[in-house]
Amino acid sequence: MKKLFVLMTLMLSFSVAAVIDVYDFETEEQEALFRTLTAELRCPKCQNNNLADSNASIAKDMRQKTYNMVIEGQNEDQIVDYWIDRFGNFVLYKPPVTLGTAILWVGPGLFVLFGGLIIVRNSRRKVSVETDERDEELTSAEKDRLAKILKDSEK
Amino acid sequence: MIPEIGHFSLIVATALSFLLAIYPLIGAKINHPGMINSAKPLAIMQFLLMSLSFAVLAYAFATDDFSVGYVATNSNSLLPIQYKISAVWGGHEGSLLLWSLTLAIWTAAVAVFSQGIPKVALARVLSVMGMIAIGFNLFILLTSNPFDRTLPYLPLDGNDLNPLLQDIGLIFHPPMLYMGYVGFSVAFAFAIAALMAGRLDSAWARWSRPWTLIAWVFLTSGIALGSWWAYYELGWGGWWFWDPVENSSFMPWLAGTALIHSLAVSEKRGVFKSWTVLLSISAFSLSLLGTFLVRSGVLVSVHAFASDPARGLFILAFLIAVVGGSLLLYAVKGSEIKSRGKYSLFSRETFLLMNNVLLIAALLVVLIGTLLPLVHKELGMGSISIGVPFFNNIFFYMIIPLAIALGVAPLLRWKKQEADLRPLFKQLAVCAVASIVLAVALPAIFADKIKIVAVVGFALAFWVIITSSLEVYIRATHRHSFVSGVTKLGRSHWAMVLGHVGLAMMLIGISATQNYKIEKDLRMLPGDEVVFADYLFEFERIGEANGSNYEGYKAVFNISKDGKFETVMKAEKRSYFAQRSMPMTEAAIDWGVTRDLYIALGEQLADDSWAIRIYYEPFIRFIWWGGLVMSIGGLLAVSDRRYRFVNKRVAKAQSLGQE
Amino acid sequence: MTDDEKKKKPLITADEKKKKQLMTRLIPLIVFLCVSAFLYIGLFRDATVLESTFIGRPVPEFALNDLVEPELQHDKSVLTGQPMLLNVWATWCPTCYAEHKYLNELAEDGVYIVGMNYKDERSKALRWLEELDNPYKISLYDPDGMLGLDLGVYGAPETFFIDSKGIIQFKHVGDINPRNWNGELKAIYEQLK
Q: pTM to 2 decimals?
C-alpha cells in the first residue's frame, strides 16, 4: 500500500483539477449553504482538499449526501454534526475550541500581550534615563565610519 | 557519460563547500590573510561547478536521455522544449539541485559584491554559507541523486511532467521562491558571523539589509506568482488555500517582512539588535522548516513531494544542526549585543516594534495552525484539520491593528514625538473619517450590498493609502515646495510608500473577492445563454482542441453587457496522453481592473450538455498587483545609493577603518 | 513602573541579571527542540491514516442486499452475536487483491469474517470471489457506499473489529497481512471474545 502510494506520488502530487457538479437548488440560501459546507468540509481520503474541489469518489458521495441534507432543510450545524459523528473533527477545516486546540488562539494572543508589555516598559525605562551617556545613538567610532561611508558614496 | 560529469562536478562542489566552511573560518580565527582571502575564489568555484552540474541535468532533459531515472519520471519526448527545461525542477531531486545552485549563486554574489565589507567579516559570512551548502549537497548526493541511471533497463519514453506543471507560471515560480528562501541564508550568515565575532554594530545591519531586501523581493514575487498560477491553472477561481505548503512559504515571508523593518531600525537607530538577530535566524530557519515539511511527508498537503522517511530524517537532522546550533549561539553570545538609544511610547520605533510583534504573532498563527494537527494527533487527541475558515477568520482580526499601526508609524518621528500630540491626532482623525467614507462608497458603487466585513477591509486599505500620501506630503513640504520636495525624497522613502500601498492594494483585492465573488455551476448546451453578474454569457460552440501531448475540448463563449458585445472567452479541458486519468482544466479568464470573469469547463453530462462553472471576481487583480508593487518597493530600497557597495573607495575607507 | 518603585526593589546583581537574560534567550531554542521532537515522531507515522469515531459504538442501522443472493436483505443483526471482522473491499482496489489471499487463510483458521463489497459492480465482485475464493461468511453489497458513509469508511480496504454485542472495538485501515495480524491485530481479535 505504502509502496504503491510512493510510486503514485513520485512527482508533485496535485490531485486536483476543477470538479463541477451541477446541483439544482430551490432557494439561494440553500445554494449558499451548500457552497459554505462543501468549502469547509474536508475530503477524508484526499491529500488536502475540501469537498467542493475534490474528484475522489468519497468526496462525490459526501457532496451528494450533503446536498440531500440541504434539500431536506437541515441547517449548517446539523449537517456538520452528521459528518463529525462519522469522520471526527478531521472532517471540518474549522477546528473545535478544546483544551488541545486552545493554543491556536492563546499562543499568538499571549505573544501580542507580552510583546506589547515589553514595548511599553522599554519605552518608559529608556526615557527615564535621559541623561545617560548611552543616549548617543551610535558610538563615536561608528559615527566616524558612517561619515566616511556617506562622504565617499556621495562623491 | 555526460550525466556522470554532472554527478562528478556536484561531488567536487560539495568538497569545495567543505573547504569553504572550514578554511576561511580558521583563517579569521588565527588572522591568516591567505586563508581569509581563499573564501572568495572558493565561493566562485563552487558556483561554477554547481552551474555545470545543473546544466548537465538540463542537457539530459533537453536531449531526452531517459537512461537517467529522474529524466524518465519527469519528462517525455513529446513535451515542448520549454517544459523539458522547467521539468528539471519539476520533481524532488531536480528541485533540490536548483536549491543548491541558488545557494551557490547567492554565495558567489555575496563574495563578489561585498567589497565594502572587511575581509575577515566576509570570510566568516561565506563560511557559514558554505556550511549550509554542505548540508544540501550531501542531502542530494546521499538520498536524492538526480543523476542516477536506470540502466540496464532503459525506458523507451518518459512518464511525462505533471500536466499541472506544464505552464509558464510554473517555469518561474519555483526559481523565484528558492531565490527568496535561500536568499534569507545571507541575512542568516551575516547574523551568525556577527555573533561569532561578537560584533553587532549598525554596520552589520547596513551590510545585511540590501541582501535581505533582495531575498524578500524574490520571495514576495515568487509567492504572488504561485498564487496567480493557482488561480488560473487549478480552475477553482481561488488564489490562496492555506495548504501546509503555501503556509511554508508564507512563514519565511512574514519573518522576512518583520526582518526588513527591524533591520531598518537597527541600522538607523542602533536599537532592537538582539531582536533583529533573532529574526535573521528565524527567517532562514523557517525556510528550512518549510523544506522539511514539503519533502518529509509529515503533513498531508496537496502539493507534497513523494514522502520518504530517510529523506525526512536527513533534513530533520540538518534542521536541528543548523537551527538548534544557531539558536544556541544566539543564547550564549546574545549578551554581547548592546542596543543603545532611547525612544518614547509615541515614537516610530515603538510603532515599528509593534508591527513586528503583530507580524510575528501572525507568523505564530500560521506556524501553530500548520503544526498543531500533527502534534494533536501524536498526543492521541485525534485528527483535526485547520484550514481556510480558521485562518481567514483570525487573519481578519490580526490585520486590523497591523494596518492601523502601519498607517501611523511613518507619520511619527524617531525617538520622540513633540510634546503636543494634538495636531497629529487631528490629522489622523481626518484620515480615518476619509477612509471610512471611501470604504463605504466603494461597494456602494460596484456592488448591490454593503457588507460590514468588506467595509472594514476597504477602510484599512484606504487608511494606509491616505496616511502614506499625507506622510509624503508632509515630508516633501518640510523644507521645499511640494513639487521640488517630492523629487528630493530618497528612493528608500518611496520604497516604504510603495511597500505599504502594495499591501493596501492587496487588502482591496482580498476584501472585494472574499465578500463579493459570485460563483455558479451550470448545465449548458451550445447555444444556451445565461445572465450572470450583469453579463450575458452565450455558449456559442464546443470543439476538439488537441496539442502535441494532449487532446481536449475547447468551449467558446460570447460575453456581452447591456446589449453590447464585450469579448470572446475560450475554456479548455485537456487530457494528457501520459496521465489520462487526470483531466486538466484550462480556464478562460477575461481580466479587467475592476473584475475578472472566469469560466471553467467541466465534464460532458448525460444529456449532451456540459457542466460549466462561472466566477465573477471583483478586484482580484489587485491582490497580485499589490504583490508586484511591494516587490518594486523592495527593489527601490535596494537601489538606494547607500547600498552601492561596489564603490571601490568605500571599500578602501572601510578596510582602513576596520580590524 | 515608576522610578520610586524601582528604587524600593532590591538591586539585582549583574550575575543574576545575566543568568535571567540567558534563560530568556534560551526560550526559542527550547521551543524549537520540542517542535523537532514532534516532527521526528511524525516521520514514522502515516499522516493519511484517520482514526475511527466508531470505537466503542454499536454498528449503525442499515439494510443492504446480499452480494451473492440479490433478493436476500441483511440488517444490523448479521453483525452481532459473535466476534467478527467486517472487511470493506472492492475489485477496483489493488490493496484488497493483495490482502485477499491472507483473508482466506484467516477464514480457514476459523476467523469469522463478514465482507462488505463497497462501491463496486456485482458481476465483477462475484467473478473475483469465484476466482480468488470466498473468505466471507456473509457478503454485504453496498454499491453506492451509503453504509460506508455511515461507518466513516473513506477508502478500501478497511476492517472493523466487532464484538459479540455488535460494538465496534477497533478499525484497521489498509491491508491485513501476516506481519500486522501477528503483530497486534490478532490480539485485538482475541480480546473480542
A: 0.90
